């Protein structure tokens, strides 16, 4: 980095800090209501989790059950769901099939959840269902590209809309699985990364819209996690990645728990670890300085030819 670039970075940092302080003051003046989770209730807290049969979703279900919550565990793969959670008592969990690509299926999952949940209440919705294919863009068939968009983007809308009335009633929280790829385009993950950028933007827009009504909206980002999703990919497409330690699904579940309790009207993005948080900072800085430093880094790490 040249002296001129260091000076520009310091200037950008100073301006950003001043803008953040001004924005915080302005937001305080809005006097928006606090989240319902800040208020005590005389029933179990409740959460609906999609993608609950595997990986991050399943670990989140287990964590919230251990914390004494009532959990709605929904997944496309009902058999896997029953295998993983079928021994739980009906007073702590309701299991069900949902296809997040299908609006009617999502509506019916929300109805099933609310019928079973204590007080018919929903304190939290965790949009976790998602799919990934690591492959050259051209080699991923059109139907698979479209399915990635349907599950990762439309699925979030399909679940959030029917859950909103109950979430508003409880002044609850919506949490969606984002990714390290929410912040930058990634070779061999082109369509997937674009869907996670959708999540990041969806969270910011909806958070701002629903804050005055006491509903918190946040997302959780992480680079790579050891789950069936990553275990089934062709890692030769990004050899750097196999050399690095993946996060665990239980650490992501822990961040979901933290996000739910720490989300405020000012704070919507949560990162599982420092490496993920740094990814977002480096990309933001690289863009602010008009550099393509982050794309170079990503390309090198993936051994992509540019
Ligand atoms: N594993 C990672 O490295 C990683 C990193 C960042 C973000 N994420 C995100 O975390 C979420 C969970 O990933 P994971 O690693 O636990 O994956 P996973 O493959 O272990 O689990 C995903 C679950 O989603 C379910 N699912 C798929 N399509 C569905 C549909 N149409 N309707 C309902 N359920 C459906 C699957 O049956 C599966 O049980 C995803 O949104 C993913 O994009 C994962």
Automatic annotation (TrEMBL):
GO molecular function per UniProt: oxidoreductase activity
- Entry GO CC: cytosol
Q: By its UniProt entry, which Pfam families does this protein fall under?
A: adh_short
Gene3D superfamilies to which the protein is assigned, alphabetical: NAD(P)-binding Rossmann-like Domain
Say which domain of life the source belongs to.
Eukaryota
Which PROSITE patterns is this protein grouped with?
ADH_SHORT
InterPro entries xrefs: NAD(P)-bd_dom_sf (IPR036291), Sc_DH/Rdtase_CS (IPR020904), SDR_fam (IPR002347)
| This protein's UniProt keywords | NADP, Oxidoreductase
The entry assigns this protein to a family as follows: Belongs to the short-chain dehydrogenases/reductases (SDR) family.
Q: Which PANTHER family match?
A: DEHYDROGENASE_REDUCTASE SDR FAMILY PROTEIN 7-LIKE (PTHR43391:SF14), RETINOL DEHYDROGENASE-RELATED (PTHR43391)
What is this protein called in UniProt?
Dehydrogenase/reductase SDR family member 7B
According to its UniProt entry, this protein's organism is Hondaea fermentalgiana
